[in-house]
Write a structure and sequence with these properties.
single chain; alpha/beta; Rossmann fold; DNA polymerase, domain 1; 2 domains; 6-stranded parallel β-sheet; 6 strands; globular; disordered N terminus
Length: about 230
């Protein structure tokens, strides 16, 4: 657990920042609820069935595509012509009950002045279910999902350019929160302040470089509360 007492903040987090960009999975909800573990398992099953691989070999393909293409889906599309709608329907057919209403997060988001937008590699129906379970759906202006990105995932720079253009965002006034640290690099390059939600996962830490991380936390709500009370 990181220490939030008497925390100082990087100069990037000045009063000029008024647009708050949030990843969804393992960012807006805590990794410990293991929701994404269900999706991870469903992806593994999909790869096993599609390519007729043993679990261990399927795991290598799954995570190899994740790192090479940004998502396993993009790798499967590029190499095996997978139907993205069939894939997303399958991997998002999960039990959402582990996600509980989060009044502390809701309170922090309510106090956070400015625009709030979700920027996710997931699809819209899934994202809406997660936000509804958390009790924070009304806190966000919009959700920019994988279909809005024409199925091109973070961290591809053109997706960030499209996102910024669609919502007329001034990156110098924006902050991005993300559990996959590599997805913060393009945001930083555009001029956004960056907050890495470090869940301790190998995949979340891939390509870590302190030069594009302005803040690190193990739980979003704790960081927001500290920031609001700075």
């Amino acid at each position: 657990m990181l220490d939030y007492k008497n925390q100082s903040f990087h100069p990037a987090f000045d009063d000029n920042r008024n647009t708050w960009v949030f990843d969804l999975d393992n960012t807006l909800y805590p990794e410990k609820c293991n929701l994404f573990l269900q999706i991870d398992q469903k992806i593994g099953e999909y790869v096993q069935s599609l390519l007729r691989l043993a679990p261990e070999e399927a795991r290598k393909v799954q995570k190899g595509y994740l790192l090479e293409h940004g998502t396993t889906l993009k790798g499967l599309m590029a190499n095996h012509k997978v139907d993205p709608y069939h894939y997303l329907d399958h991997v998002h057919d999960i039990d959402f009950s582990p996600i509980a209403r989060d009044d502390a997060l809701r309170d922090a988001l309510t106090k956070l002045r400015g625009r709030k937008i979700v920027f996710t590699n997931a699809d819209l129906p899934y994202a809406e279910k997660v936000l509804d379970r958390l009790g924070i759906a009304d806190q966000f202006e919009a959700i920019f999902d994988i279909h809005e990105a024409a199925l091109e995932p973070k961290p591809k720079r053109e997706v960030y350019d499209k996102f910024v253009k669609k919502f007329e965002i001034d990156p110098s006034k924006a902050v991005m929160f993300e559990d996959m640290v590599r997805n913060l690099k393009p945001a930083h390059a555009l001029g956004m302040a960056t907050v890495w939600i470090n869940t301790g996962s190998v995949w979340g830490q891939a390509d870590y470089d302190a030069s594009f991380v302005h803040a690190e936390t193990d739980e979003l709500t704790n960081w927001l509360q500290a920031f609001l009370n700075r």
